[in-house]
């Protein structure tokens, strides 16, 4: 425990007087997080640019497993969310928290553990995701040992933060800190609940939730990762750095109270808007809709308080690039948080969901709000950390314009692409048939937009390179003020504590009560949506004919997960005529009860696969996986030649079976012992079928298992028979 | 000046409207005379409807007119209202704020600016104002809450709204009506008796359809790849044009032949079936080995 004692610096000064103590802020940790922010920002965005061009030119998948879109897309999202924005959060929090609490961070050792622990977690993500170790749950792809490491490091962060708050020399907590506290608590809850999984081996696990429940938990998490990782901490940063940069008072204290509490309470409910028209129960979908609409005002409360703080300072905005970045950031936040509720309306969602419209929407938030606010904070911090003016204001301005153009070049083509494709999917001709029956037609139509979007990404990234140069030159010109001296009152002044002020002042003096209040606020929504979905059976009506996967299909499914197929293919036929005509009967909740994790997907770059089973012969899949363009000329899907070379690894099969049985999949007793044998038998059958079509393949290759899984998809319900019976009855 | 003339203009317009309605109602009278046959009854109903529409239009016009008059009146009263608005008791009330908006004072939308910094709120040099919640924001928030409650009641309490499954059934029922109109024949067991198309335009169309949809599996020259060779005399599911049409339309479950029903129109399917039969004996390179039974095309083996 000794190492975790409050930081003492050599030569710390004796109190100057009875009331004032000289002490030092830790600036080095701020600098370190800042450098990490920039480093991972470039890495994450570079991967993003590559992934963007892969969609236009499949050969950029480079023919290796480690560089295909399905594996690097999660690397891109994880890198920009948790590495770039994550380090950005810590940069801003470590700087502002010390100053808002008028004390050094609680423990330098904890700060260091936090910093290096977080970087190690990112490195482990870079190491595992391209190798195909993934849970496939979006923004939570990292496998269980890394999940545990994240939990531990997050606790270190919380410990350090609450320790600092406890030692504050400031009676009241500023609004920025309320947001930091809500961020810490909610992310902890989200991460732990969504990462519940049973390990099968060192880097493989199965979600304890299945199908509909897994989807609900995942999007409660996914949506609130946006809320509490990309939004609340950045609102906290905005509340510190905007008034600092503008040198203006915050517009409205009471607005910050109302929008803080309403935001954290309402946000949590809105997750199901990611699952509209899916097999999620209707009542949960409707809750997602209405809470999303109610979220407009709380979100805009932050925007208003930000923009109106600039009242009387707009002349500064014209001259100060930092404020320009901030204004665009806040405006992008306002646009994205208005668009989000609109996309949550079912009739809009019916067109936009699964298309590039959603990709445009998130990038307005990510590039505009998170990116630009991060840049503003870094530009503001660097001269202060290095005690010298910024190297070049001109370059800052160029960065600003490159970034803004980049956002436009990114977002507009994606909106266009999303809108185009969404309408093409739904278009019927006069004869009552799909106008674009061939899915590929709708893809080829938007490939030019994919090029433009990639160019937008390059513009944005080149701006970031200018920033790196500018920050580097600034650092070189100055010296790091590693420990910044400050004076703080030794004791909190009780005589002037304004006990009779605003009612909310009471809780601002009490971090524990504030934390409890925030925890209650964020638990309600999730509980109301999850508990009935888990406890009440009628929410997921079971279907007798739906059976567990065979051991070979299970292995095939794990290959589907490893290759990241879910990044481009959905498994959720929605109840629209345009989808049942194209894919077959719409997906039912009861069909997914053995799906751990669920693989509904969120983007349809390729067609839906839920009813692909038995639609084509084995040989079609064989040829298609070897070279997609052989079966679908013009396809942008990458080839998967390694599936034809690798032998299927059966080592974990028995462990997988017993893990799934533990979770409730009704595999017969002792199935572990015969699982591999059964799998080999089924594989031999598929190889024999392929041989009939003049394709010679060894039955122990991975491709055979993948074909087994694909051919099983969506075949358990005998819809065709039912339909025939219905026709006969009429 | 315009505002002074506005009421008179509106009155004039309204009287014109009303007299028009009356005239129409009189026109309709003769048609309302007793008549025995159904056609005349229908005409009568139509006339009643016209009269009704005119009446409704007239009433709407009247209401708009009254509102315009009121507005004009209020507009002229502005100097007086400004005096009223100046009273603090009025200004603080909700109708006072509405009055303010009318008089061009936006405080009812934006809220009041209080330019004094709050005492005791100083965090590392950051101070705070205690400005009002902008009313447009606050009432917007209330509105979304009302929307939320109403939405939930509409769909889950009174159950007036169609949820996903019902919406889908509705959509399918509408589509079924359409396909009934188009006379779609969707019974796989009902034989068709089409003749092969021979017009060059049809064969060309069939060729295009083949290249776009069939070539991936059957090869560009129908030599057979994943799917069988279509240029030889051997057929798995019959080589007569109606048999080929049937295979194209309904597919072959479990063997990978896609059902093109709903993706290609009947005409397109017949075009492509006819095109395929023109390829008989074309002997393409890399032809796949024969599959199925030998049949001579052109002479239907058996009537369907």
Automatic annotation (TrEMBL), chain A:
Binds 1 copper ion per subunit, denoted as copper B. Binds 2 heme groups per subunit, denoted as high- and low-spin. It is a multi-pass membrane protein. PROSITE patterns: COX1, COX1_CUB, CYTC. Heme b 2; high-spin binds at residue 361. Residues 1-480 form the Cytochrome oxidase subunit I profile domain. Heme b 1; low-spin binds at residues 76, 363. Pathway: Energy metabolism; oxidative phosphorylation. It catalyses: 4 Fe(II)-[cytochrome c] + O2 + 8 H(+)(in) = 4 Fe(III)-[cytochrome c] + 2 H2O + 4 H(+)(out). Its cofactor is Cu(2+); heme b; heme. It comes from the Bacteria. The keyword Magnesium does not apply. Its main location: membrane. The chain crosses the membrane at residues 33-55, 75-95, 115-133, 145-166, 173-193, 219-241, 253-270, 290-310, 322-338, 358-382, 394-416, 450-472, 514-535. Gene3D superfamilies: Cytochrome c oxidase-like, subunit I domain, Cytochrome c-like domain. Its EC number is 7.1.1.9. This is cytochrome-c oxidase. It comes from Hymenobacter jeollabukensis.
